[in-house]
Amino acid sequence: MIARYAPNQLVAVMTLAKDHQNIREAVAAALKTPNQEGWTALHVIAQYAPNHLEAVIALAKDHQNIREAVAVALKTPNQEGWTALHVIAQYAPNHLEAVMTLTEGHENIKEAVRVYTL
């Protein structure tokens, strides 16, 4: 919801998540949990607030639970069959390189990217 209706607040949420485990856990859950249409928070951020993907990626670099959530979301299809990786490629292609940096040493993300880029 924040990504869609108050995207400018995402940076504040990600900043709080750096230092507070309970907020990181909530962010991780939102990043990977699909709504009724199959959209995860990562799908929504990629489409409606793509400039804030950097904050998600930065958080994922430092926290395993966020990396795991990103890995799940990258391969979760919405009702139209679009994964978060597809949405990033379509609406935020300039962030694909940063997503790819997450694959270094993180097998779950590497697998998500490999499967959906074939």
List keywords for this structure.
mainly alpha; 118 residues
Describe this structure in words.
There is one protein chain. The chain is mainly alpha-helical. It has one domain: Serine Threonine Protein Phosphatase 5, Tetratricopeptide repeat. The protein is 67% helix and 0% strand. It is built from nine helices and no strands. The chain has helices spanning 2-5, 10-19, 21-32, 41-48, 53-62, 64-74, 84-91, 96-101, 107-116. It is globular and about 35 Å long. The mean pLDDT is 88.
For the CA atoms, what is the radius of gyration? 13 Å
CATH class: Mainly Alpha
Distance between the termini: 31 Å
Helix content: 55-70%
User: Ranges with pLDDT <50 over ≥5 residues?
Assistant: none
Query: Remind me, CATH topology?
Result: Serine Threonine Protein Phosphatase 5, Tetratricopeptide repeat
Structural class: mainly alpha
Overall pLDDT confidence: 88
Number of helical runs? 9
The number of strands is 0
- The shape is globular
> From the coordinates shown, what is the CATH architecture?
Alpha Horseshoe
